[in-house]
Design brief:
The protein has seven helices and four strands; from the N terminus they run ααααββββααα. With 180 residues, it is α+β, with helices and mostly antiparallel strands. A four-stranded antiparallel sheet has the order 1-2-3-4. Helix 5 packs antiparallel against helix 7.
Length: 180
Amino acid sequence: MPRSAIRHANVDRVCTLAEMADLFVQLANDDPPAEEQDRISRLMQIENRVAEGIFSVEDWWNLEHMSAPSGLNCPNCRSALYEIADKKLLRFRCRSGHGFTAESLLSGQAEAREAQLSSLFGALVEEASLAKRMQHGLAAKESAEVATGLASRADELSREATQVSEWLHALTNLVEPEPS
C-alpha cells in the first residue's frame, strides 16, 4: 500500500514506521509562513462561496490573482479556465464556477468532444435529409440543374456524416455506422 500511495499521489515525506512519530512532532511544530497561511485561508473562503453559488465579482478578481490562466476552456460552459495554485493537486476553475481536478477535466473534455461530434453528426444528417427532400420537391422538379445540385449536396453531406459516425464509433463505441 505505501508503494501504491507513492506512485499515485503527491507525497511530501517518506519514512519508516520507527521515524514516523518524530516526523509527526516535527510537522506539528512546523507552521507554514503566515502569508502562505493567509493566502490559503482566503482561497478556501472564496472557493467555499463559489461552491455555494454566492460568489461575487470581487471574489473572481481575487481568485484570478491567486491563479494563472491555463489556456484551456471549461468543457461545461467554454469560459476560460484558471489553474489554482495548489501544491498537492492540479486544479482548475472557470468564471462560471465550475471546478475540476486534472482528472475530472480530462474526463469532461472527453464528454464535451463526444457531445460535439454527436451534435455535428446530427446536423449533417438533418442537412442531408433536407437536401434530399428538396431534391424531390417542387423546386427540383422545375429544374434538373437544381435537382442535380441538391443530390450532389446530399451525397457529400452523407459522406461527411458517415465519417463523423466512424469517428464517434472509434472514439466512444456509441454510434453504429449507418447500414449501406
